[in-house]
Design brief:
This protein has 26 helices and no strands. By secondary structure, it is mainly alpha-helical.
């Protein structure tokens, strides 16, 4: 079986492809630096500029090589060390990043910005003492700069030094009164200090400046619910609503997410028949990947409120992620019966049919999901995968193109469209998409790239 046939099954199962050592094609920014270095192999600025360009392409090894050469040519260049430290930070090599930032400081101890950068790395390493010291040094060198006050305030708040955090945010706002997002940061400090009225006032200021500040909005809900709980510790609805706000604010692996689950648990303890609390905790477990607990909670929610379409949707998603497509389809069908205009249920059932390789039913459901919610990026991409698996390459390419219009930074979608172009014998288009996939950090399968080379007669 040719590889391009086999790849369809991987695509329809939404399996990530493996890496390919394909040759990169770079833009004129790299070419200009190449010419400068050819003309003068000791041009330090050219190496630094090329390193910066390599970083834009995600070519960090090449960037490091160029910055190392710049340092060899000019060992007293503090900025070359600073830039190399920045690359090390990007790739997660914090030890080398600290070493290079320290060398830059040794060469020029009066650059406040470098202390701030090193502080950020110390934070990532959990070395809060050194991070605070570096922010403090940056403030000493640049006392009119609000940024290190703000960053030190965030760190103080994170480690529980709320009084110091409050002092820093007050100073940052004094230096930059128009920095409205810092009102939201100070509001979180007040929230952590249980000063709910001042917290709400600061979140209101942030929202007055930017009504779309989602974080300030959710934090205001947290403050309002916390105030309600302080007034009535047995208010189950307040715990449930605060948990929902915490859930919206955090990623599943963050501390606030566990706090959300704790609030849902407290709501259930106070009111064991509060269906929304089981629903919210079940969905939180789905997000954390604890599908068995999610199914238990969502089943309890359904028992308390049998017409709760969202509970069937959540349980269907949990079943699907567990690999039980049949149970998922049954629950999603129930969700659709209860809420015929709910796009997510059609979308997830379409994905379940896609995983079962029932492409016609998948396409029918995904058509309905898209009709109900045309901006549904994932549904459009899934339909493209279904068309690709069916061999309808023109429609697959059209869906992938639509998906990329909505989100142009998806390397996998470029790769899937390249496969569609290949089958349509539009090899130049396929190469363009393979290159774009690579530029965005994607990893096309080397076997597909080899077949594309053979079919197109192109070696790069």
């Amino acid at each position: 079986m040719p590889f391009v046939t086999r790849v369809i099954y991987a695509v329809c199962l939404i399996v990530l492809v493996t890496a390919v050592p394909a040759q990169r094609v770079f833009g004129p920014d790299i070419e200009d630096c190449d010419r400068a270095i050819d003309q003068n192999p000791k041009d330090v600025e050219a190496y630094r500029n090329r390193a910066s360009a390599y970083c834009r392409y995600g070519e960090y090894d090449r960037a490091l090589a160029d910055l190392t050469m710049a340092i060899e040519l000019k060992p007293t260049d503090a900025w070359a060390y600073e830039e190399r430290a920045g690359v090390y930070e990007r790739i997660g090599d914090h030890t080398r990043a600290v070493a290079d930032f320290s060398k830059a400081i040794e060469l020029d101890p009066n650059i406040a910005f470098v202390y701030q950068e090193r502080a950020r790395v110390y934070e990532a390493m959990g070395d809060h003492t050194r991070a605070v010291a570096d922010y403090t040094k940056a403030i000493e060198l640049s006392p009119e700069d609000y940024v290190p006050y703000s960053n030190r305030g965030l760190l103080y708040d994170a480690i529980g030094a709320h009084d110091r955090a409050l002092t820093d945010f007050n100073k940052a706002l004094e230096l930059d009164p128009k920095g409205y997002y810092r009102y939201a940061s100070r509001g979180r400090v007040y929230l952590h200090m249980a000063d709910y009225d001042r917290a709400i006032a600061d979140f209101d200021r942030a929202l007055a400046a930017d009504p779309n500040d989602f974080t300030a909005y959710e934090n205001r809900i947290v403050a309002q619910c916390s105030k309600a709980i302080a007034l009535n510790p047995k208010d189950a609805a307040a715990y449930n609503n605060r948990g929902l706000a915490y859930k919206e604010l955090a990623d599943p692996d963050k501390r606030e997410y566990d706090q959300a689950i704790a609030d849902f648990c407290k709501a259930i303890e106070l009111d064991p028949r509060l269906a929304p609390a089981y629903y919210n905790r079940g969905n939180a477990y789905v997000d954390k990947g604890d599908y068995d607990k999610a199914i238990v909670d969502l089943t309890k929610c359904i028992g308390l409120q049998p017409d709760y379409a969202g509970a069937y949707l959540g349980r269907g998603i949990a079943y699907r992620r567990k690999g039980d497509s049949d149970s998922a389809i049954a629950d999603l069908a129930k969700a659709i019966k209860l809420d015929p205009n709910g796009a997510p249920a059609y979308h997830h059932r379409g994905d379940a049919y896609l995983e079962k390789r029932d492409y016609d039913k998948a396409i029918a459901d995904l058509n309905r999901a898209i009709a109900l919610f045309p901006e549904g990026l994932d549904a459009v991409t899934s339909r493209g995968l279904a068309y690709l698996a069916k061999g309808n390459y023109g429609r697959a390419a059209a869906d992938f193109t639509k998906s990329l219009h909505m989100s142009p930074e998806s390397p996998d979608v470029y790769y899937h469209r390249a496969v569609a172009w290949f089958h349509m014998k539009k090899y130049e288009n396929a190469w363009v998409d393979v290159d774009q996939c690579l530029e965005l950090g994607g990893t096309p399968d080397p076997k597909f790239v080899e077949e594309l080379r053979e079919a197109s007669g192109k070696q790069e």
